[in-house]
Amino acid sequence: MSQDHHGARRVGQVKEVTSLSNPIVKDIKALANKKDRDETKSFMAEGLKLVIDALELGFEIKTLVYAKNVKDKPQVVQAATKTVARGGLVLEVSEKVLSSITRRDNPQMVVGIFTQRWTSLRDIRPKAGETYVALDRVRDPGNLGTIIRTADAAGASGVILIGETTDPYSMETVRATMGSVFALPLVKASPADFLAWKKGAGVSVVATHLAGAVDYRTIDYRKKPVVLLMGNEQQGLPDELAREADALARIPQAGLADSLNLAIATGIMLFEARRHLLTLEERE
Fold it and tell me: By residue range, what is the domain housing residue 23?
Protein backbone atom coordinates (compact mmCIF):
# COMPACT_ATOMS: atom_id res chain seq x y z
CA MET A 1 0.00 0.00 0.00
CA SER A 2 1.42 3.39 -0.93
CA GLN A 3 0.44 6.86 0.24
CA ASP A 4 1.03 10.25 -1.40
CA HIS A 5 0.98 13.79 -0.02
CA HIS A 6 -2.44 14.59 -1.50
CA GLY A 7 -4.39 12.47 0.96
CA ALA A 8 -4.58 9.51 -1.40
CA ARG A 9 -3.50 5.94 -0.97
CA ARG A 10 -3.66 3.06 -3.40
CA VAL A 11 -5.27 -0.22 -2.37
CA GLY A 12 -4.82 -2.71 -5.22
CA GLN A 13 -6.47 -1.08 -8.27
CA VAL A 14 -8.40 1.40 -6.12
CA LYS A 15 -7.10 4.79 -5.06
CA GLU A 16 -8.45 6.10 -1.77
CA VAL A 17 -8.91 9.89 -1.69
CA THR A 18 -9.81 11.97 1.33
CA SER A 19 -8.39 15.37 0.42
CA LEU A 20 -10.30 18.07 -1.47
CA SER A 21 -6.98 19.40 -2.77
CA ASN A 22 -6.16 16.14 -4.56
CA PRO A 23 -5.30 17.00 -8.21
CA ILE A 24 -7.61 14.30 -9.59
CA VAL A 25 -10.50 15.71 -7.54
CA LYS A 26 -9.67 19.20 -8.84
CA ASP A 27 -9.70 17.93 -12.44
CA ILE A 28 -13.09 16.28 -11.92
CA LYS A 29 -14.53 19.42 -10.31
CA ALA A 30 -13.29 21.44 -13.30
CA LEU A 31 -15.75 19.49 -15.50
CA ALA A 32 -18.44 21.86 -14.20
CA ASN A 33 -16.95 24.31 -16.78
CA LYS A 34 -17.80 23.83 -20.46
CA LYS A 35 -14.25 24.85 -21.45
CA ASP A 36 -12.79 21.98 -19.41
CA ARG A 37 -15.38 19.51 -20.72
CA ASP A 38 -14.57 20.53 -24.29
CA GLU A 39 -10.80 20.34 -23.79
CA THR A 40 -10.91 16.90 -22.16
CA LYS A 41 -13.96 15.68 -24.17
CA SER A 42 -15.27 14.40 -20.83
CA PHE A 43 -18.39 14.70 -18.71
CA MET A 44 -19.77 13.55 -15.38
CA ALA A 45 -22.70 11.20 -14.78
CA GLU A 46 -24.08 10.91 -11.25
CA GLY A 47 -25.71 7.85 -9.73
CA LEU A 48 -25.18 4.12 -9.99
CA LYS A 49 -28.01 3.62 -12.51
CA LEU A 50 -26.56 6.17 -14.96
CA VAL A 51 -23.04 4.77 -14.58
CA ILE A 52 -24.28 1.22 -15.27
CA ASP A 53 -26.32 2.42 -18.28
CA ALA A 54 -23.29 4.18 -19.73
CA LEU A 55 -21.02 1.17 -19.20
CA GLU A 56 -23.57 -1.16 -20.80
CA LEU A 57 -23.93 1.15 -23.82
CA GLY A 58 -20.17 1.10 -24.35
CA PHE A 59 -19.26 4.63 -23.25
CA GLU A 60 -15.57 4.96 -22.43
CA ILE A 61 -15.12 5.43 -18.67
CA LYS A 62 -12.15 7.46 -17.48
CA THR A 63 -12.78 7.50 -13.72
CA LEU A 64 -15.24 5.82 -11.37
CA VAL A 65 -15.75 7.55 -8.02
CA TYR A 66 -17.68 6.00 -5.14
CA ALA A 67 -18.26 6.62 -1.46
CA LYS A 68 -16.46 4.30 0.94
CA ASN A 69 -19.73 3.15 2.53
CA VAL A 70 -21.02 1.58 -0.75
CA LYS A 71 -17.79 -0.14 -1.81
CA ASP A 72 -19.13 -3.63 -1.04
CA LYS A 73 -22.40 -3.29 -2.98
CA PRO A 74 -22.34 -5.93 -5.75
CA GLN A 75 -23.24 -3.42 -8.51
CA VAL A 76 -20.52 -1.02 -7.34
CA VAL A 77 -17.95 -3.85 -7.30
CA GLN A 78 -19.10 -4.84 -10.80
CA ALA A 79 -18.79 -1.24 -12.08
CA ALA A 80 -15.32 -0.95 -10.51
CA THR A 81 -14.21 -4.24 -12.12
CA LYS A 82 -15.44 -3.04 -15.54
CA THR A 83 -13.70 0.30 -15.09
CA VAL A 84 -10.35 -1.32 -14.28
CA ALA A 85 -10.76 -3.80 -17.17
CA ARG A 86 -11.32 -0.87 -19.55
CA GLY A 87 -8.27 1.01 -18.32
CA GLY A 88 -10.10 3.53 -16.13
CA LEU A 89 -9.21 4.81 -12.68
CA VAL A 90 -11.22 3.89 -9.57
CA LEU A 91 -11.42 6.31 -6.65
CA GLU A 92 -12.83 5.51 -3.23
CA VAL A 93 -13.66 8.80 -1.53
CA SER A 94 -15.24 10.33 1.55
CA GLU A 95 -18.74 11.80 1.32
CA LYS A 96 -17.16 15.24 1.80
CA VAL A 97 -15.18 14.74 -1.43
CA LEU A 98 -18.29 13.50 -3.26
CA SER A 99 -20.28 16.56 -2.13
CA SER A 100 -17.49 18.76 -3.41
CA ILE A 101 -17.39 16.98 -6.79
CA THR A 102 -21.16 17.00 -7.37
CA ARG A 103 -21.82 20.37 -5.70
CA ARG A 104 -24.64 18.80 -3.71
CA ASP A 105 -25.21 18.40 0.03
CA ASN A 106 -26.71 14.94 -0.46
CA PRO A 107 -24.61 13.57 -3.30
CA GLN A 108 -25.17 10.37 -5.23
CA MET A 109 -22.83 7.68 -3.88
CA VAL A 110 -21.39 6.83 -7.30
CA VAL A 111 -20.11 9.13 -10.05
CA GLY A 112 -18.58 8.28 -13.41
CA ILE A 113 -16.39 10.41 -15.67
CA PHE A 114 -16.96 9.40 -19.30
CA THR A 115 -15.76 10.42 -22.76
CA GLN A 116 -18.31 12.43 -24.74
CA ARG A 117 -19.80 10.76 -27.80
CA TRP A 118 -20.86 12.78 -30.83
CA THR A 119 -22.29 11.57 -34.14
CA SER A 120 -21.45 13.35 -37.39
CA LEU A 121 -24.42 14.79 -39.30
CA ARG A 122 -23.26 13.07 -42.50
CA ASP A 123 -23.54 9.71 -40.69
CA ILE A 124 -27.25 10.30 -40.02
CA ARG A 125 -29.13 8.58 -42.83
CA PRO A 126 -32.79 8.54 -41.82
CA LYS A 127 -34.85 5.49 -42.71
CA ALA A 128 -38.60 5.12 -43.15
CA GLY A 129 -40.43 5.26 -39.85
CA GLU A 130 -37.68 7.18 -38.06
CA THR A 131 -38.16 10.48 -36.24
CA TYR A 132 -35.43 12.97 -35.33
CA VAL A 133 -35.55 16.14 -33.25
CA ALA A 134 -33.65 19.22 -34.43
CA LEU A 135 -33.31 22.07 -31.91
CA ASP A 136 -32.35 25.58 -32.93
CA ARG A 137 -30.12 27.32 -30.32
CA VAL A 138 -31.74 25.60 -27.32
CA ARG A 139 -30.44 27.47 -24.26
CA ASP A 140 -31.97 25.91 -21.18
CA PRO A 141 -30.17 22.81 -19.78
CA GLY A 142 -33.38 21.50 -18.17
CA ASN A 143 -35.28 21.81 -21.44
CA LEU A 144 -32.54 20.07 -23.41
CA GLY A 145 -32.27 17.24 -20.89
CA THR A 146 -36.04 16.75 -20.80
CA ILE A 147 -36.21 16.74 -24.61
CA ILE A 148 -33.45 14.09 -24.88
CA ARG A 149 -35.28 11.97 -22.28
CA THR A 150 -38.64 12.43 -24.06
CA ALA A 151 -37.12 11.72 -27.50
CA ASP A 152 -35.74 8.45 -26.13
CA ALA A 153 -39.12 7.55 -24.59
CA ALA A 154 -40.93 8.33 -27.86
CA GLY A 155 -38.62 6.09 -29.87
CA ALA A 156 -36.84 8.91 -31.72
CA SER A 157 -33.58 8.09 -33.50
CA GLY A 158 -31.45 11.11 -32.57
CA VAL A 159 -31.20 14.76 -31.55
CA ILE A 160 -29.60 17.39 -33.80
CA LEU A 161 -28.40 20.58 -32.10
CA ILE A 162 -28.34 23.56 -34.47
CA GLY A 163 -26.21 26.66 -33.83
CA GLU A 164 -25.05 27.81 -30.39
CA THR A 165 -26.83 25.49 -27.98
CA THR A 166 -26.48 24.60 -24.34
CA ASP A 167 -24.15 21.66 -23.72
CA PRO A 168 -25.92 18.27 -23.55
CA TYR A 169 -23.01 17.04 -21.42
CA SER A 170 -23.36 19.67 -18.68
CA MET A 171 -24.19 18.27 -15.24
CA GLU A 172 -27.68 19.83 -15.27
CA THR A 173 -28.56 18.42 -18.69
CA VAL A 174 -27.18 14.94 -17.99
CA ARG A 175 -29.22 14.88 -14.75
CA ALA A 176 -32.38 15.91 -16.60
CA THR A 177 -31.94 13.20 -19.27
CA MET A 178 -32.15 10.48 -16.58
CA GLY A 179 -29.68 8.36 -18.59
CA SER A 180 -31.20 8.91 -22.04
CA VAL A 181 -28.13 10.98 -23.00
CA PHE A 182 -26.38 7.59 -23.39
CA ALA A 183 -29.10 6.07 -25.56
CA LEU A 184 -29.50 8.61 -28.40
CA PRO A 185 -27.08 9.84 -31.06
CA LEU A 186 -26.27 13.53 -30.54
CA VAL A 187 -25.26 15.75 -33.45
CA LYS A 188 -23.92 19.32 -33.63
CA ALA A 189 -24.53 21.33 -36.81
CA SER A 190 -24.52 24.89 -38.11
CA PRO A 191 -27.78 26.10 -39.73
CA ALA A 192 -26.08 25.93 -43.16
CA ASP A 193 -24.88 22.36 -42.58
CA PHE A 194 -28.34 21.30 -41.40
CA LEU A 195 -30.05 22.80 -44.48
CA ALA A 196 -27.51 21.21 -46.84
CA TRP A 197 -28.00 17.83 -45.12
CA LYS A 198 -31.81 18.17 -45.32
CA LYS A 199 -31.67 18.50 -49.11
CA GLY A 200 -30.02 15.13 -49.56
CA ALA A 201 -31.41 13.20 -46.59
CA GLY A 202 -34.89 12.52 -47.98
CA VAL A 203 -36.61 13.79 -44.85
CA SER A 204 -39.77 15.74 -44.15
CA VAL A 205 -38.99 18.70 -41.86
CA VAL A 206 -41.96 19.65 -39.69
CA ALA A 207 -41.36 22.90 -37.80
CA THR A 208 -43.47 24.39 -35.04
CA HIS A 209 -43.97 28.09 -35.64
CA LEU A 210 -46.23 30.77 -34.19
CA ALA A 211 -47.23 31.60 -37.76
CA GLY A 212 -47.81 27.92 -38.48
CA ALA A 213 -50.85 27.46 -40.67
CA VAL A 214 -51.33 23.73 -40.14
CA ASP A 215 -52.78 22.04 -37.08
CA TYR A 216 -50.04 19.63 -35.92
CA ARG A 217 -52.57 16.75 -35.78
CA THR A 218 -53.46 16.99 -39.48
CA ILE A 219 -49.93 16.51 -40.84
CA ASP A 220 -49.03 13.17 -42.43
CA TYR A 221 -45.91 12.06 -40.59
CA ARG A 222 -45.64 8.78 -42.49
CA LYS A 223 -44.50 9.60 -46.04
CA LYS A 224 -40.83 10.16 -45.20
CA PRO A 225 -38.58 10.05 -42.14
CA VAL A 226 -39.55 13.07 -40.03
CA VAL A 227 -37.32 15.77 -38.53
CA LEU A 228 -39.19 17.83 -35.93
CA LEU A 229 -37.61 21.28 -36.02
CA MET A 230 -38.11 23.31 -32.84
CA GLY A 231 -37.15 26.96 -32.29
CA ASN A 232 -35.24 28.74 -29.55
CA GLU A 233 -37.09 29.35 -26.25
CA GLN A 234 -37.23 33.14 -26.63
CA GLN A 235 -37.10 33.90 -30.34
CA GLY A 236 -38.64 30.88 -32.03
CA LEU A 237 -37.35 29.73 -35.40
CA PRO A 238 -35.38 32.15 -37.59
CA ASP A 239 -36.71 32.71 -41.12
CA GLU A 240 -33.72 30.96 -42.73
CA LEU A 241 -34.81 27.69 -41.09
CA ALA A 242 -38.59 28.22 -41.10
CA ARG A 243 -38.79 28.83 -44.85
CA GLU A 244 -36.99 25.55 -45.57
CA ALA A 245 -39.46 23.47 -43.55
CA ASP A 246 -41.85 21.17 -45.43
CA ALA A 247 -44.66 22.02 -43.00
CA LEU A 248 -45.13 24.81 -40.46
CA ALA A 249 -47.23 23.40 -37.66
CA ARG A 250 -49.06 25.01 -34.79
CA ILE A 251 -50.29 23.46 -31.55
CA PRO A 252 -53.72 25.02 -30.85
CA GLN A 253 -53.88 26.50 -27.34
CA ALA A 254 -56.59 27.73 -25.02
CA GLY A 255 -56.33 29.96 -21.97
CA LEU A 256 -54.05 32.92 -21.31
CA ALA A 257 -50.71 31.26 -22.15
CA ASP A 258 -49.49 32.42 -25.54
CA SER A 259 -46.87 29.70 -25.91
CA LEU A 260 -45.77 26.35 -24.52
CA ASN A 261 -42.52 25.44 -22.82
CA LEU A 262 -40.10 24.09 -25.47
CA ALA A 263 -39.76 20.64 -23.87
CA ILE A 264 -43.55 20.25 -23.57
CA ALA A 265 -44.12 21.36 -27.18
CA THR A 266 -41.42 18.97 -28.41
CA GLY A 267 -42.99 16.12 -26.40
CA ILE A 268 -46.40 16.78 -27.94
CA MET A 269 -44.93 16.78 -31.46
CA LEU A 270 -42.86 13.64 -30.84
CA PHE A 271 -45.74 11.58 -29.57
CA GLU A 272 -48.03 12.81 -32.36
CA ALA A 273 -45.49 11.75 -35.01
CA ARG A 274 -45.09 8.44 -33.18
CA ARG A 275 -48.87 7.92 -33.01
CA HIS A 276 -49.15 8.16 -36.81
CA LEU A 277 -46.32 5.66 -37.27
CA LEU A 278 -47.77 3.23 -34.73
CA THR A 279 -51.16 3.44 -36.46
CA LEU A 280 -49.41 2.61 -39.72
CA GLU A 281 -47.64 -0.40 -38.14
CA GLU A 282 -50.95 -1.65 -36.71
CA ARG A 283 -52.60 -1.46 -40.12
CA GLU A 284 -49.79 -3.45 -41.66
Answer: 2-115
